[in-house]
Amino acid sequence: MSLPAINLERLRSDLLSLFEIGYDPQTKGVTRLGFTPADNEAKQWLINRFENEGFCAHVDHAGNVRGRLSDEPVRQVVATGSHIDTVISGGMFDGTLGVIAGLEVLRVVKENNIQLQTPLEVFAFAEEEGRFGGMMGVQALIGELTPEWILKAHDVNGVMLEDELKNSGLDPLSVLDARVDTNYFKSFVELHIEQGPVLDTVKKPIGVVTSISGVYKWIVRLIGKSNHAGTAPMNMRSDAFMGLANFANEILRIIDEEGSDKSRLTVGKVDLKPGHAHTVPGEVEFTLVGRDVDADVMQALADSCRKVLSAIARKHKLMFEFEQMSWLDPQPMSDNIINLIQAEAKGLDLPFEVMPSGAGHDAQHMAKVTDTGMIFVPSIAGVSHAPDEWTHWQDIEKGANLLLRTLLKLAS
Ligand code: HGY
Ligand code: MN
Ligand code: MN
Ligand code: MN
Q: Which family does the entry's similarity section mention (predicted)?
């Protein structure tokens, strides 16, 4: 009997439709920040898709969308999925591929009337991109959130998580009720684009992920003195921009001396205040995101950034402060899932690369509570978090079929 396979046309059609929600024809990118109207619209679209297929779906107290074949009570599930929230002006596949592939797996199970020992559940985890710091949806499921964090969390523009939850029809104080029992998850496998250049370089269609990079996110403030751009002598300024510029020039040295080839330091958003051409900026607020696959290296990077920023503040007569929005440790994947994915890839005659993930993923949290693995498909030229993020459809088909085979093995 031939083994069931995914239907690429259905997968493609769902990905293209979902891409329209939050799509900007100017930038050709999609923006669905966690708990914004576009994100909520995408969640409703997903629930409708599950229900149109005769499946059951709901949004839990933390804003995760969860879909299963039926709503009969279950003690344990084999889970899959990813996220449908995006960065600003993101691409078509980051997160959405894992969710839509999970929906397609449910369709294949139903149309082939496959009987499973353990039910499958597909998750679109809420707020994976860390608008408010961390990965809130999956962290709520595994019990990592506190009421204090929920009530104080805000985004880089000062928008409170609490308000966005209410605007999304969720009760901030019920978010913790999303927590599931520790043995609810039998295992979890996430299909995701690599978002980096490795698979495209080695020309292999599949990545088998061994570990996921850690990531910390700071909001840094350098506070000096606004002053007249014409009269203030250069040596009498407390110019916040010059402090940032000085730090920017130190980033590569910090990585050289404290980091590894997997280390990353990124300043993604900068706010100069007051922001007038004729005024020396008295304040700069910027995001600083540090990453590495090794926890000690990540800590060394953070310590060095703090030291360098303190020295720069003294040199430029500035005040330095920072807020740590999140610190997510690097996380190894489970050996048994890594081995299973490799075995199934061999069974499908798919060449694969065993590799770490430079990007963060929901799987790095799921791995704390259950056997977890990730399957990568190539990102062309390694581009992601940008409109020209792209993956060949035939690679998507290979990755989705490998996910199908792996989940069927885990659930049978
Ligand atoms: O930024 C990341 O690594 C992930 O996409 N949240
Ligand atoms: Mn992302
Ligand atoms: Mn992602
Ligand atoms: Mn991610």
A: Belongs to the peptidase M20 family.
pLDDT at 1: 54
Beta strands in 93-184 (DSSP E): 120-124
Ligand 1 site residues (CB inside 6 A) read 128-130, 215, 359-360
Ligand 1 pocket test: which of 129, 192, 325, 362 has the largest number of ligand atoms within 8 Å of its C-beta?
129
Task: Determine contact, residues 199/345, Cβ cutoff 8 Å.
Answer: no
Q: Which atom of ligand 1 is nearest to the CA of 213?
A: 3
Which of 215, 266, 289, 362 maximizes ligand 1 atoms within 8 Å of its Cβ, making it the mutation to test the pocket? 215
Closest ligand 1 atom, residue 360 Cα: 3
Name the closest-CA residue to atom 4, ligand 1.
360
The per-residue pLDDT for range 201-214, each reduced to its tens digit, is 999 999 999 999 99
pLDDT on residue 3:
81
Rounded distance between C-alpha atoms, residue 376 and residue 343, angstroms: 15
Share of the chain above pLDDT 90, in %: 99
Tokens 């927590």 belong to residue:
179
Can you tell me which atom of ligand 1 is nearest the CA of 384?
A: 5
Q: What is the number of the ligand 1 atom nearest to the C-alpha of 195?
A: 5
Exposed/middle/buried for residue 366 (C-beta within 10 Å: 0-12, 13-18, 19+): buried
Distance, in Å, from the CA atom of 222 to the CA atom of 169, rounded to the nearest integer, reads: 37
| Residue 35 backbone class (left: φ over 0; alpha: ψ -120 to 50; beta: rest) | left
- 10 Å Cβ neighbour count for 295? 13
d(CA 292, CA 305): 14
Q: In the predicted model, what is the mean pLDDT of residues 239-267? A: 98
Evaluate if residue 182 carries a pLDDT over 90.
no
Token pair belonging to 361: 């993923």
Q: Integer distance in angstroms from the first to the last C-alpha of the chain?
A: 17
What pTM was computed for the model?
Answer: 0.96
Under DSSP, is residue 316 helix (H, G, I), strand (E, B) or coil? coil
Give the pLDDT mean for 331-348. Answer: 98
Amino acid at 234: M
Q: What is the pLDDT of residues 114-134, one digit of tens each?
A: 999 999 999 999 999 999 999
CB-based contacts of 378, cutoff 8 Å, min separation 6? 193, 194, 199, 200, 204, 205, 207, 391, 392, 395
Candidate from 33, 128, 376 with most ligand 1 atoms within 8 A of CB, to mutate = 128
Cα–Cα distance, 127 to 34 (Å, whole number): 4
